[in-house]
UniProtKB/TrEMBL annotation:
This is Ribosomal RNA small subunit methyltransferase A. It is found in: Cytoplasm. It comes from Pararhodospirillum photometricum DSM 122. It catalyses: adenosine(1518)/adenosine(1519) in 16S rRNA + 4 S-adenosyl-L-methionine = N(6)-dimethyladenosine(1518)/N(6)-dimethyladenosine(1519) in 16S rRNA + 4 S-adenosyl-L-homocysteine + 4 H(+). SMART domains: rADc. Gene3D superfamilies: Ribosomal RNA adenine dimethylase-like, domain 2, Vaccinia Virus protein VP39.
Amino acid sequence: MPARRWGKNFLFDLNLTGRIARAAGALDQGSVIEIGPGPGGLTRALLAHGAREVIAIERDPRCLGALAEIDQACPGRLSVIQGDALSVDVAHLGEAPRRIVANLPYNVATPLLLGWLKHATAFECLVLMFQKEVVDRLAARPDTKDYGRLSVITQWLCRVTPQFEVHPKAFVPPPAVTSTVVRLDPRPEPLAPARLETLERVTAAAFGQRRKMLRTSLKPLGDPVALCAAAGLDPTARAETIPVEGFAALARAVDEEA
């Protein structure tokens, strides 16, 4: 059985694994990086879809035997790294173009994504399965309840396209939540000029007190009224109403004031 402490729920439905593989487009060039393949349901789909090379990162040693059998069936096309994906520099694995395609362990899905986004242009695309609520946040627009830090950082760096939902009964064991597959296409350049480190500080301050006006929530960063004026924003606005470009403008204002 999957190790619950690692947040794994495995997917064996051939129709669903095939849909995930196809969402990544043509796979006959470069490398596909899969995180947490388990016994290899999605791995098989990626290879069947024509992946030239799949690099699978698996922490659970109990899954290595099943992956070895897939390797024997597709010699030279599957490499397995036993380890924690949080500790692996996936941006330099394999050959470009690189794609990450994965049913992510729920308990580390967001930290993994935030780490990859720091090197977003290293990837052709990322096709990932999260809990539905996470994808809702990734794709959220301003003035909605799901819009927040994760929305801003992700949309600043990538185009976000939800693909389809997956019912809990499709998994072994069934999770308590619905899942959603999403495709992220890294932008050649961020949506608006800014430094990532500063944008993270700005969004942390603004959404840390999301019900407060910017003139209050931005105080840790400097004079909030002056920062808003420099960014062309209303200091009485709240974080959830500010578009991604507005946060980038605030980040530039913070850097200029420093």
